[in-house]
Amino acid sequence: MSQPDPGDKKTPYHALADRFKLKLDFRPFIQVDQVPARELRKQRLDILDHTAVILTSRNAVDNFFRIAEEMKVELPATMKYFCMNEGVSLYTQKYTVLRKRKMFFGKGRIPEFLTLVKNHAKEKFLFPCSNIRADVIPDFLEEHKIKYTEAIMYKTVNADLSDLADVYYDIICFFSPADIKSLFDNFPDFVQNNTRLAGWGKTTHQAIEEAGLTNNIPAPSPDAPSMVAALENYILQVNA
């Protein structure tokens, strides 16, 4: 699993492993590095010049509030927060107590979230993001002439996987195109052979195919809404 080890926390993946007697390793293929506040100061970022913040992930939340603290910015009660989903919305309360009227969140689907943003087009948005991000949100803001500032507050970089050079897995699960990039940056001569690949989401599926590999276990799908379900279906199929 190209994700961080959950530690002692039991996940649905552990339940799947127990059921089918699988050996399961968690190993993130990418890591997130913080961008120091001084770099954003050089870019003359003024958080208080904005009336709303777009937060698409927990990483965005963590790094936005970190930068605000490092810059000694006291966030006003009038600041509005637009979160990709309710989970991200709830996570922001780790840092601040928010009134419901200042918190807006979508249901996890990009079109719904963009409509939510468009309904508040008079705001001036701050968009904390990684150096690797999809174009859909900036393109939408540009298209609808909504004022915004993009601020790279954290960077997604390859993890060092050199210790896996002689380790061979039956299945590798990928969750982002960055995972595929990290695979080939670490192992330029990687050949799939009999290894089955599982890819989460359309962009990951596309990255796998563009790399000349086969996504044997695509997810989500109508009969597999989660990666766990996709893996379970595959295991049942090949062991039938």
Structural class: alpha/beta
Classified by CATH, the class of the largest domain is Alpha Beta
Give the strand order of the largest sheet, numbering strands 1, 2, ... along the chain. 1-6-5-2-3-4
What about the largest sheet? 6 strands, mixed
H and E order: HEHEHEHEHEHEEHEHEH
User: What general form does the structure show?
Assistant: elongated
Distance between the termini: 24 Å
Number of helices: 9
CATH-scheme architecture of the largest domain: 3-Layer(aba) Sandwich
Question: Layout of helices and strands, plus pairs?
Answer:
Elements: H1 12-20, E1 30-34, H2 37-42, E2 52-55, H3 58-70, E3 80-83, H4 86-91, E4 103-105, H5 110-118, E5 125-130, H6 136-143, E6 148-158, E7 171-174, H7 177-186, E8 196-200, H8 202-210, E9 215-219, H9 227-238
Parallel strand pairs: 2-3, 2-5, 3-4, 5-6, 7-8, 8-9
Antiparallel strand pairs: 1-6
Helix pairs in contact: 7-8
